[in-house]
Amino acid sequence: MDKFISRKLTASAVVAALTICSTSIIAAPIVLNNHGFETGDLSGWDFIGDVVASNSTDVTTDNGTVYSISPFQTHMAYLDSQGATVTEIEEFLGIQVGSLFEAQSVGNSTNDSGNFEGGPEIPQEVISNANSAESGDVNTQNQSPVEIADIEPVSNGNFSLTNGSAISQSFFAEAGDTISMSWNYVARDYIPYTDPSFAILVGPNGETIVDVLATTTGPGFATGSDGISGVFQFTEELTEAGEYTIAFAVTNSGDTALNSALFLDNGTSLCEPNCNEEGSPENPLLPEEDDTPDVFDFTFEVTEPSTPIFIDPIVAIGYDYVVHDGPNVASVILPSIGDGVFDLYGWDGGDYTNFLGSVNAGVEFDFGSLGVDRFRVSGIEVEAGLDPTDSTAFITGLTFVSAGTVDISQTPISIEVAAVPSPSTLPLIGLSLLAGFFMRRKRK
Prior knowledge:
The protein folds into two domains: 4-272, Galactose-binding domain-like (Jelly Rolls, Sandwich), CATH 2.60.120.260; 296-442. Helix content is 6%, strand content 36%. It is built from four helices and 29 strands. β12 (197-202) and β13 form a beta hairpin.
């Protein structure tokens, strides 16, 4: 029997790792066929339901809010939650019927019996009923009060999943590779209709992971009624060589009206009004205007300690991070620069000689429960040629051990070298790939 794992993602953990690789493996990003839909169509992809390759698109919600979504380049995939029943979507994806309903309604994993841990067992007939709606049916009208009561407590009012759309592509990967896709979810509907969106990854051994990306109420990113998630990155680091399938889906719940939308791209798209909060990877905090030339100083309020806050200095081959006041740093996420492998050092009381470990770009490094008040990042190649005028030179994600006001500095470690090639001539990985990378690596 294939192993099935579901995960509910919060705003502070939009991505988790399938399995974390050994530090000796350098993660290489997978480039899918027509990854950014720049052919202007869906060539290279399989899909079911209402899916198109779109350029800039306006989405109007039930309360009249208009979100203008623009692609990273010229096109993006636009999934509207209509055109296929949820059962048809699951059969198209080759996953167990009822999997999507279970993923967004109870626990975080399945045990050997197939019942989800961390939540009440849902009767199989209720799960079947939850996925039985044909397009145009309002599924809850055919359920008894007992069945609705069985579902409601474990699904935030999500009585059933009715219809939607999905897109998928298979690819081959080596151990240590990473697969990424930028996504943005818009809810046209209102609470209690959760209208969940999903990312699905099927591994070579049949292990299937279903992540709930966003809904109106949670699990996943909770947009609220008529809301938008903003741009996040779904990323998985892969540990086995073989064939994988990556898929995304968006569904209606409880009815077939006011469809939600899911946008996919290979880079950070734009949205108006601006849907990326200050301190996000797409809109990082910048140093204070009165900053000294050699040190980048940041002061900001931490309200959600486990939610990464992204800060951006100018140029360096390494950095020293020092908390002068406020809670310790709990973890760090580093961008894809150079070979994407960095060394972390702790403070021994006189210098940064305490080797903490190596970490790949986009993989969250955990400093432990107490965190640290200072650390050094080294290993940025001179050949990376970071542009000192580039405002997105080294976007760093930080989480903290507790809430509070943080005064932190980021001091570049510089070196005088001969002429360095222009960044435009180097095969650098776009910084947009950083968005939402929250794959955790525990310190040994």
